[in-house]
Automatic annotation (TrEMBL), chain B:
Taxonomic lineage from the root: Bacteria, Pseudomonadati, Pseudomonadota, Alphaproteobacteria, Hyphomicrobiales
Organism name: Jiella flava
Alphabetical list of SUPFAM superfamilies matching this protein: MetI-like
A GO biological process held by the record: transmembrane transport
Protein name: sn-glycerol-3-phosphate transport system permease protein UgpA
UniProt subcellular location: Cell inner membrane; Cell membrane
Oligomer status and interactors: The complex is composed of two ATP-binding proteins (UgpC), two transmembrane proteins (UgpA and UgpE) and a solute-binding protein (UgpB).
Major place of residence: membrane
Membrane disposition: Multi-pass membrane protein
Gene3D superfamilies tied to this protein: MetI-like
Amino acid sequence: MSTHEHAAASAISLKGVSKSYGSSEVIRDLSLDFAAGAFTVVLGPSGCGKSTLLRMIAGLESLGSGSVSIGGTPVEKLPPKDRGVAMVFQNYALYPHMTVLQNIGYGLKLKGVPRPERETMVRETAASLGLADLLARKPAELSGGQRQRVAIGRAIVRKPRVLLFDEPLSNLDAQLRTDMRLEISRLHRAIGATSVFVTHDQVEAMTLADRIVVMNQGRIEQSGTPEEIYHNPQTTFVAKFIGSPPMNLLEANVSNGVVCLGEASLLEAPCPNGSITLGVQPTALRLGSGSHTGAVSGIERLGREVVYHLETEHGRISAVAPEAKAGWNPGDAIRFDINTESLALFDPSGQRIAFPPT
Amino acid sequence: MARDGQFQGRWWPILLSLPQLLLIFLFFYWPVVIGLKWSFFLERPFGGSAEFVGLANFQRLFQDTEFYAAAGRSLVFMLTASAATVLFSFVLAVAADRKLRLSGFARNVLFWPQALAGASAGVVLSYLFNPATGVFSWLNTLSPGLWNPVLDGFDANILLNIAYMWGRIPIDFAILLAGLQAIPESYHQAAAVDGAGPWRRLLDLQLPLLTPQIFLCIVIEFNESFNQAFKLIESMTHGGPGNSTNQLVYKIFVDGFRGYDLSGSSTQSLILMLLFIFIVVAQFALLERRVNYAR
């Protein structure tokens, strides 16, 4: 994982940031650093405070308490325009009465860039986004994907030190979303600005991020590379949020250092006696034989692989099997085994139990 | 009735709209037709046989200097009163939209004058602006006669403009405020990130996006100030002092109902109507091209 150091990028640092609306606390004493030039995705369900966090960096939202600095300069008292940030909005927020050319060039115009120079910069940016032929159009005459490109163009034309994305792809259809993901990835490498991308879509997070920050109820649940987040979720919240289908969480028991799922003992672990939560990746199930049984309640055929949803005595379990193992039908009873090498254990409060890898 | 909820048959729609059509015909189109006829006849004030006089009424009117003066006063009042009303309403709407302190309260207070009839407003305001006892009477202690709408034609017209604005700001304010509030917050945020402060956003964002509402206000204010100043003039100045507030609408009333010159009055009504049709057409031709309907 390389971080692209770039002259134009600035690190962002949040320290002890809180924010409340009335009596509801949206952000709770949050501290977070964004490395210069890195692409960080803030991931979380709606209402977790991720958009508020982004708006506080942009200066569109005041801080309840704490401090924000960009490139080492405290910015919490500066208006958005003096922070060197650019932002892409969920609903594009293009100025409806301006053409594409005027939309992209508006920030430059306000900065006092002379017209000929401005037009050159806008044309270059538009060309890099495939908008060269649309400069005279108004936003109403563009498709959703084109509007999103204009919104991105408007953000990058000023060569900002920090690029903020507020769920920019959620209004696009699936195919466009995939294209735009690749496009944003490419642009990030080309521009090198520090990027913060807010989304509730874990696929976007996994594919775009150098680092993922998972948020829940105004707090950071976990922060790490996509691989770390996927393979080593530190809480049950992260485990439930990442992966498609996500990790299976099963109620298990520990007695005398042995983890048991129902009657079957799975592995030895140095845990106190009592109930724990067992995290099983859908890929860690071996279907066809073994000591557990489940009834097939649903099948998702995804081409190369098949997802089986099983009803078991321990609850509903999702299992991913290669296409070759696609012989079962709904209602069939399947025997299966759990690969104990990649299991995760969580205590009753949902925190990961450190457990030496075997 | 058909299944899709629409009435079938050719007569139903006509029958259902008949009461309204009848009213419009009786109280609008029929008077227009009568007025048109009277413009070419010499009507007797207490009835009896009318005499066809051809274009003599028009001839008489076009030689009357007071007619031109009254038409001019109507046009000037239309421009000043409309411009001032829309401008003040815009300023108030922008302030209310900014969520300043008490703006919620101000929104309600600003709308209340709408509930008052024009004539009552005129009576109240002529007391309020009375040269001896009104709010501007202190001006006369500085220099006697500085504010005297009873004697000074210019002051009388200012009074008329203020009274008009006072009654008309509520509706324009409501229209413009609704327009401003329909501008999504994200446009403001995008512009703020782009580097536009509040004044810049007013100029580059709010004003262009508000053009449909501003145009609507100008159209209704032109109509209202040109045709409806009568109730204010009748209750405040009676066309005086010295004809300085004698607008065409008021002159038509005085000539017809005080001077019993029914034919001359009808002829002026006809010309007033043609003049106003011209104004409306010109408005749409010149102004509407600059209106931005895209949101």
